[in-house]
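[job 4471] stage=fold_predict status=RUNNING
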Amino acid sequence: MDTEVVVRAQRGDREAFAELAGASLDRLLSVARGILGDTGLAEDATQQALVDIWRNLPGVRDPARFEGWSYRLVVNACYSEVRRSRQWMPGAIGPLTGEPVASRDEFAPVHDRDELERAFRDLSVDHRAVLVLHHCLGLTLPEIAHSLDIPEGTVRSRLYHAMKKLRTVLRVSTTGPDLAPRTERVRP
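[job 4471] inference complete, writing structure tokens
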């Protein structure tokens, strides 16, 4: 991000802020979608984050760190959306029951994606935020710690526990109740 544009926006230049907002919008929306898993909620969180950026921009001490600071605001806006929303309820969607359909091979990628999505939805917002920032945006652990204003050890812990939970859920979804690998059904 061009620090000169950030400085101009800090001084109240609306055109500079419009440039900042335009350059940041897709990135912030992507983070919010990743964390919330709902486009409507993500749009609301992104809009709130942009309002917060405008209000709090004059207080940013280091314009070179605008991007990380804006991540913190969008993650905080996601937290607010989760608190406000009745749509998001952890664990509301449980694992599928019953046997897989006979033609599981055709639908395996869809089933796997759905299982991953369910597992991701069951994570806390804190864990989702760290996963999205690290795996989707490629931020390093120190960058995430700075962006979220939390210790690096906390980032490491959240990432570890989130990945552990995802692996557990995915491992269970690819094995039967007796933990033996599922076998293909033979069609008559």
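[job 4471] summary: The two ends are 61 Å apart (CA to CA).
[job 4471] exit 0
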